[in-house]
Amino acid sequence: MPNTNIATFRPLDWQVAAWRDKSLLLLLTGSAGGGKSRLAAEKVHGYLLHYPGAAGLVVRKTLTSMVNSTLLFLERQVMGQGATVRHHRTARRFEYSNGSVLVYGGMADEAQREHIRSIGPDGALDIVWMEEATRFVEADLDEILARMRGKAADWRQVILSTNPAGPGHWIYKRLIVGGSASLHVSGVGDNRYNPADYLATLGLLTGTLGARLSAGKWVSSEGVVYADFDQDNLTDDEPDPNQPVELAYDDGYVDPRAILVVQRSGTRLLVADEIYHSKHLEEVCVGEIVDLCKARGWGLPALAVGSPEAVALREHFRKAGVAARSPALGIVEGIKLVRRLVCDGQGVRTLQVNRRCVNLIAEMTDGYQYPATGASRRDDEKPLGGNDHAVDALRYWVSLRMRR
């Protein structure tokens, strides 16, 4: 006879909003031990209990990791081996008394993918949980999204739960920066069930691992220039139409020419938009950025600040009615100023970047790095060139306009 004890779920404070969220894509991230996996598992189980005939899927990248961890967690802590659910191990599925089914598996190879495609007569899904989501490739999510056509309820959902990785990861770029997912962030301190020594253990972690697992930040490996730049520096805000905008630029032709639209308002510096082109003439880029500002109601930029060597580009700005200047501050000093705007010693983030500035965000988070010396970083060390066009444009502007 099956055990008829039913496990009881008592949500943490942060889990309530995520439980009620019916968005198609639900991203649960943050530090280790915050309760992400428990919420995801409970939500899938609750959905299948509430909507008869629903089709659910829970996947990890490999079948081995699924069987050795997530499967045991589902059975012992979530389902409670209730009479309403029976486990058919050979078919790798749970069958509910109301006709719902939960299939589990991996997506590491074609055999594992074929198994999860066998859900139901038409392969339609209602709810999916992708555990340790940073292990998946973007194509894995796309394959699942193509099958989210179940009709058991009037809403469907893919839940991705994961600790952070680097900001170059597709999850960060598509779901967080791109805003494709509904985001719920939790910390180790949000889970009252964690033992005190677990919090202390996470506190011992340093470097990239500490930033990701303890602080819950999407940060690059050691060596990124603006290591404190993260999702708290991102925004969907637009410039104040009653305040002037300015431009920051770094010249190029074979290498990209980057021009940013910036606005300083009160205690905030907003980077509102960008153009980022290779093999475009100066006058074409100047015309494009001026037209963009006017079309969005920001008006003619009041000033353009950029690379001292860009003599021809400055002249084209002036012909368009935009005053142009260049800073005299060096690279190292300029980087220090930008860092303080990214995040000062008190946690204040003056710099805000609109999510559409994808090239600036990519350089800030992952592309602009120091040489891999393996030694302690010197205060006068200069970063590597190459992935520095938009960040250089920002540094030029900051060096002149916010030096004080």
List the domain count as a whole number: 2
Classify the beta-strand content into a percent band: 15-25%
Shape designation: elongated
- SSE run: HEHEHEEEHEHEHEHHEEEEHEHEHEHH
| C-alpha Rg (nearest Å) | 25 Å
**Gross CATH architecture of the largest domain:** 3-Layer(aba) Sandwich
Distance between the termini: 75 Å
| CATH topology type of the largest domain | Rossmann fold
Number of helices: 13
Overall pLDDT score: 87
Class based on secondary structure composition and strand pairing: alpha/beta
* Relative helix content: 25-40%
How many beta-strand elements?
15
Give me the CATH superfamily of the largest domain: P-loop containing nucleotide triphosphate hydrolases
Would you identify the regions where 5 or more consecutive residues have pLDDT less than 50?
1-5
Level-1 CATH class name of the largest domain:
Alpha Beta
Strand order of the largest sheet: 3-4-5-2-6-7-1-8
Describe the main β-sheet briefly. Answer: 8 strands, mixed
Q: What's the quick description here?
A:
The chain has helices at 13-20, 36-50, 63-79, 110-116, 138-145, 170-177, 196-203, 207-214, 282-295, 311-319, 331-342, 358-367, 389-401, and strands spanning 25-30, 55-60, 85-88, 93-96, 101-106, 127-131, 157-161, 182-186, 234-235, 246-250, 257-265, 268-277, 303-306, 323-325, 351-354. With 404 residues, it is α/β, with parallel strands linked by helices. α10 (311-319) links the parallel β13 and β14.
Question: Describe it for me?
Answer:
- The chain is an alpha/beta fold.
- It has 2 domains: 13-214, P-loop containing nucleotide triphosphate hydrolases (Rossmann fold, 3-Layer(aba) Sandwich); 221-404, Nucleotidyltransferase, domain 5.
- The chain is 34% helix and 19% strand.
- It has helices at 13-20, 36-50, 63-79, 110-116, 138-145, 170-177, 196-203, 207-214, 282-295, 311-319, 331-342, 358-367, 389-401; strands at residues 25-30, 55-60, 85-88, 93-96, 101-106, 127-131, 157-161, 182-186, 234-235, 246-250, 257-265, 268-277, 303-306, 323-325, 351-354.
- The protein has an 8-stranded mixed sheet, sandwiched between helices.
- A hairpin with a 6-residue loop joins strand 10 and strand 11 (257-265).
- Helix 11 (331-342) crosses helix 13 (389-401).
- The longest helix is centred in the first third of the chain and has 17 residues, at 63-79.
- The radius of gyration is 25 Å and the shape is elongated.
- Residues 1-5 have low confidence and may be disordered.
